[in-house]
Structures are given as structure tokens and as C-alpha cells.
Amino acid sequence: MPQPAVPPAMATATPVGYLGPAGSWTHQACTELYGERGLVPCEREELFAAFAQGRLARLCVPVTTSLVGATP
After folding, report:
1. CA dihedral 23, 3, 37, 57 (to 10 degrees)
2. Of 50, 47, 1, the residue nearest 26 (C-alpha)
3. Hey, how many other C-beta atoms are within 10 angstroms of the C-beta on 16?
4. 62 pLDDT tier (thresholds 50, 70, 90)
5. Residue 38 maps to which CATH number?
6. Residue 43, domain member (yes or no)
7. 38: burial class by Cβ within 10 Å (0-12, 13-18, 19+)?
8. Do the domain assignments include residue 38?
9. Does any domain span residue 8?
10. 25, part of any domain
11. Strand ranges for 1-72 from DSSP E
12. Neighbour-count burial of 26, counting CB atoms closer than 10 A to its CB (0-12 exposed, 13-18 middle, 19+ buried)
């Protein structure tokens, strides 16, 4: 399946943290939004701490998941 083109305004080399491991749905959403460069997989606590400390420029966090429904 071909990858959609990433709009130039969204392509980034700045760190974008996402919830979950590489290959997760959140990772897929990040690659479609931001491209492959600068993506950082994180667990929930690490993700928000890294953002608060300025180590991540953006976050990508799911609102719901297919496994547990609403994300706590």
C-alpha cells in the first residue's frame, strides 16, 4: 500500500513522541502526519514527562483504542 504524501508543513525532524511501540496504530498515524523522521516511541508516563521537560516538541496520543476502548 503506498504511503500518503506528507504535507511539507507537517514534515518534521523535531522530536514527536507517540504512545506505544513502533508498528502500533499511533505510530502509523504519526508517520502519516509527520513522516518517519523524529518519531519517538514512549510509554505513557515517559511521554508526558518528556514533553513537560521540553525533550519532545509534539505528542501523538490516541483518544480510544481497539483493545481497551477509551484511553485512561
Report:
1. -80
2. 47
3. 21
4. confident
5. 3.40.190.10
6. yes
7. middle
8. yes
9. no
10. yes
11. 16-19, 39-42, 58-60, 64-65, 69-70
12. buried
Look at strands 16-19 and 39-42 and give their pairing.
parallel
Degrees (nearest 5) of the Cα angle 65, 68, 1?
A: 35
Distance CA 6, CA 25 (A): 17
Say if residues 22 and 41 touch (Cβ distance below 8 Å): yes
Predicted pLDDT of residue 14: 84
Instruction: Give how far Cα 53 sits from Cα of 45, 50, 68, Å.
Output: 12, 5, 29
Total tally of structural domains belonging to the chain: 1
Q: Average model confidence (pLDDT) for the chain?
A: 80
- Domain extent, residue 21, equals 16-70
